[in-house]
Amino acid sequence: AFSIFGAFGGLGAVVGILLAGGLIASIGWVWIFRISAIAALILLALSVIVIPVTPAKAEKAKVDYLGAITATAGVTGIVYYIITGVEYGWGNAKTIPVFVVALALVALFIFIESRVHSPLMPLRIWKIKSFTTSVVLAFVSMAKFQGIIYYANMTFQEVYEWSPIKTALGFLVHALLAVIVFAVLGRILPRLPLKPLILTGFLLRSGTALMFSFVNEHT
């Protein structure tokens, strides 16, 4: 199941990258989002037909609405501050108030989670060492990965002056290898010790980030 999921994820990356390059080069970048929306609606319609309806539970589920609202608004505010801070300045009157409110909402979210009976994020899970470590590693790892993707895209188009199609083809190495590696890992992963595998992957990403720091127009 893991190998199939990973392989289809890699194939999706290949198709998405090539499709995005083709759309940018032809009818415009906005169609990347329009086609994504159309595809999502088609999948939604298919899911109504394909996914079986489970019987309703006798006990009504309790939803942490306040936690959901404060967490979403808080994180959105922090993202807004990071994005607009580059343009307006980190201490600008347009950004600082939003950041302060966002932090207050995150703090309120934590307070709510410590009080409600059915919290969205039970605070006790942070006492589990493996969980906390995994979340921190995932955060740092994905931050590096997305940074590298963004930096590579800028290098291809702004430094090398590649076209959108050629830029898309530049990412094919990563996408195709993802298909192969996930398919192989799905077979051998159950027989491998997990911790060394995670550490190896983390070190490879760190090495990649370091290599990218030396890239210039002559690389």
Automatic annotation (TrEMBL):
Pfam families in the cross-refs: MFS_1
PANTHER family in the cross-refs: MAJOR FACILITATOR SUPERFAMILY MULTIDRUG TRANSPORTER MFSC
Membrane-related topology note: Multi-pass membrane protein
Subcellular location as annotated: Membrane
Main location group: membrane
InterPro entries hit by this protein: MFS, MFS_dom, MFS_trans_sf
Keywords on record: Membrane, Transmembrane, Transmembrane helix, Transport
Entry-linked Gene3D superfamilies: MFS general substrate transporter like domains
Protein name (Swiss-Prot/TrEMBL): Major facilitator superfamily (MFS) profile domain-containing protein
The organism of origin for this protein: Linnemannia gamsii
Every Major facilitator superfamily (MFS) profile domain range: 1-219
